[in-house]
Amino acid sequence: MSSTPRTLYEKIWDAHVIEQRDDGTCLVFIDRHLVHEVTSPQAFEALRMAGRKVRRPELTLAVPDHNLPTTPRVDAAGNRVPIEDAESRGQLEALERNAPEFGVQYFGATAAQQGIVHVVGPEQGFSLPGATIVCGDSHTACHGGIGALAFGIGTSEVEHVLATQTLQLRKSKTMEVRVEGDLGPGVTSKDLIMHIIGTIGTAGGTGHVIEYRGKVFEEMSVEGRLTVCNMSIEGGARAGLIAPDETTFRYVKGRPYAPKGEDWDKAVAYWKTLHTDPGAAFDKSVTINAADVEPTVTWGTSPEDTVAIGGIVPDPMSFADPSKQRAAQASLDYMGLAPGQRMDEVEVQNIFIGSCTNSRIEDLRAAAEVLKGRKIHPNIKWGIIVPGSGLVKMQAEAEGLDKIFIDAGLEWREPGCSACLGMNPDKVPAGERSASTSNRNFVGRQGPGARTHLVSPAMAAAAAVTGKLTDVRKLTNDAPALA
Amino acid sequence: MEKVSTVEGRAYPFGMKNVDTDIIIPAHFLKTVTREGLGKGAFEALRKDPSNVFDNPEYAGSPIIVAGDNFGCGSSREHAAWALLDMGLKAVIAPSFSDIFSGNAFKNGIVTVALPQEAIDRLMEVAETDPITIDLEAQTVTTPFQDRWTFEIDPFRKYCLTEGLDEVGLTLQSDDAIRSYEERQQSEQPWLARGTGLAA
Questions:
Q1: CA gap A395, A399 in Å, rounded
Q2: Which of A153, A298, B92, B175 is 20 to 30 A from A378 (CA-CA)?
């Protein structure tokens, strides 16, 4: 045991290094591997061609999410509804074949446990504190919310993990994002992480693993922590971490793959050691004042283009960096916005509540609270609510949330990545705007020409009600008058 | 990957210069979910000509292509290497190769042998009727007619090819270390080792 104070990242890293090479590269053990249909087919194929097996099938969990349409998957007669798009169907069928062939647990399109990989992992107790978790998807950073070191990998690395249960990695630098004070009423974890990215920039965390520290995170639910860590990659960090605590242990306990009995006690005793030691040094540190965080929206085509809902579209010339000036101008051209325009006057036509960032039960409850007893505005042409998993869907239905959404005029869908990325039928039409709870407002991300404004679930619900980007606090404080 | 020590057999006398990866495998084959089966799309445009070398029964199943310089230029698609592999190819001999292609070929166990144009001209002749032998260990290319050329190869690549090691194979050289890590985890943190419980 080293006596030098270590950060949380260093503790998890050290616990997984199998061997270190002379050039500093480390062979690192991977505890959990999540697999979806898009980045895995060629990896499984490579194993087959090399005559290799999955080294530890019990450490991999496969579930389709990216391509899957969110419309009903079983017809009235109980038959599977085929996927129209041949390529999507092909990728799905490949995973359906590969998982059993290689002995990997698979939750298929119609299973109750199916959902977005980053919702399923924690929900099943497959993602655990202190574990190394990878997936062929950059939003794997999400699982840092339960205190796991989790990051995205490419297809060749997917193959490498399947075959060896390891990766060749170099140690990252450490970065502390410390948030002081408390968030105001109506300000959520999504607003906070968007504000953080707006502050540090999309390259602010490059080469680093971020640890989020401060009372705000200690008091935050696990769902909120998953939202925060999920978007670490939008701040350039491959992974984000929040130290596991009693809130985490309560969340994990009793889940299908969580430790049980004597193992549980041992696990918790170990997890309690997973925190940054007093005196441990970070390579970089940023402090954010929680009181400065307002309900936040994006105005541009980069997740760092954030502004408080009460703010205005910035003037591109207001940025010091000439390349940022050009990028901002290009963003405004694409978004159809002008400098000085008030954000709370921007009309939207589409609402998307879902994605690995914001599709957990707490997100749906937050949206339902705003939508209860209200109708969507006539501006809204298309509004969908996509639960993160079949189990989230069942829970929401048990709480009657689906009825609130449907009564309001929104569509209640099957679980999947949906309109977060233009890879399945859920797309935002060209030239139209969406208030979206997803994580990327990139050009064309939600469909060619689609204009995305990233928001929290409560803010998306507020936009659905008013037909424009809206400060949700006005609805929650003054509900009857605005209903 | 299979160990490669020698590649011996008939060769396609192709000879074309600047063969880009779009020629090797056109873009519309990139939507596949597999690395296998791309052989049917290999050289698709050229194979529309009935007299093309790849469909000539004389050369069916040849493990070697003899080509002109700058082979594999253009797009970085690894599908080009996958397509050649799927055709049953194990080596390409040409005056020069694009760096990306030769890296992709190497990853897939295909040997790229660079020889001067005079050697290529002679090999084009020999390939019409007789087999060619590439000896990776000795770094030579020979024919049944006493032709003999030596070629250069990166020592690391040679080692990987002759030992049949890809990146996964290299990691598995640390198999003992991985195994002892796994055993320690099994005893100290059994909850992590259990996973979904679906063991092989």
A1: 6
A2: A298
| Domain contains B160 | no
SS3 B10: coil
CA distance B51 to B35: 28
Option in B174, B192, B199 nearest A27 (CB): B174
Here the CATH number for the domain that contains residue B141 is 3.20.19.10
Asked, for residue B39, whether it belongs to a domain, the answer is yes
Joined together, the tokens standing for residue B17 give 């210069």
Residues of B in contact with A13 (CB under 8 A): none
Interface test with B, best of A55, A146, A268 (most B CBs within 10 A): A55
Residue B71 lies in a domain: yes
Out of B31, B36, B191, closest to residue A87 by CB: B31
Q: Does A87 touch chain B (CB under 8 A)?
A: yes
The Cα B104–Cα A182 span in angstroms is: 53
Average pLDDT on B11-30 reads 89
Radius of gyration of chain B (CA): 20
**How near does any CA of chain B get to the CA of A457, in Å?**
32
Domain co-membership, B148 together with B177: no
Q: Does the CB of B199 have a partner CB in chain A at under 8 Å? A: yes
* pLDDT on residue A481: 37
Task: Using a CB–CB cutoff of 8 Å, tell me whether A45 touches chain B.
Answer: yes
Residue B194's pLDDT is what? Answer: 95
* A159: contact with B, CB 8 A cutoff: yes
Indicate whether B169 and B117 sit together in one domain. Answer: no
Task: State whether residue A419 sits within 8 Å of chain B by CB.
Answer: no
SS3 content of chain B, % helix, strand, coil (to 5): 40, 15, 40
- Partners of B134 in beta bridges: B7, B141
Which element (helix H / strand E) includes A382?
Answer: strand A382-385
Task: Say whether both B11 and B67 belong to one domain.
Answer: yes
Q: What are phi and psi of B22, to 5 degrees?
A: -70, -35
Query: Which amino acid does the sequence have at A259?
Result: P
Helix (H) or strand (E) holding B141: strand B140-142
Residue of A nearest to B175 (CA): A164
- Strand partners of residue A35: A62
Question: How wide is the angle at C-alpha A213 spanned by C-alphas A210 and A219, nearest 5°?
Answer: 130
Note the pLDDT of residue A128: 98
In chain B, how many domains are there? 2
B29 Cα to chain A: minimum distance (Å): 12
Chain B contacts in chain A segment 432-471 (CB below 8 A): none
Of A60, A104, A164, the CB nearest to B172: A164
Chain A interface includes B155 (CB < 8 A): no
Best of A21, A36, A49, A156 to mutate (most B CBs within 10 Å, chain B): A49
The reported pLDDT for the residue numbered A89 is 92
Strands B140-142 and A296-298: unpaired
Range of the domain at B135: 6-153
Please judge whether A105 and B172 are an interchain contact, meaning their C-beta atoms are less than 8 angstroms apart. no
Instruction: Tell me, yes or no, if B178 comes closer than 8 A to chain A by beta carbon.
Output: yes
B35: which chain A residues are within 8 Å (Cβ-Cβ)?
A: 42, 45-46, 49
Q: Are residues B184 and B88 in the same domain?
A: no
Residue A384 region by backbone torsions, left for phi larger than 0, else alpha for psi between -120 and 50, else beta: beta
Going along chain A from its start, the domains and CATH numbers come out as 8-169 (3.30.499.10), 173-243+269-292 (3.40.1060.10), 298-482 (3.30.499.10)
Successive 10-residue mean pLDDT values, chain A, 483 residues: 86 97 88 95 92 97 96 94 90 95 97 98 98 95 98 89 95 97 96 98 92 98 98 94 98 97 97 98 98 97 96 96 91 98 98 98 98 98 98 98 98 97 92 97 93 98 98 77 36
B80 within some domain: yes
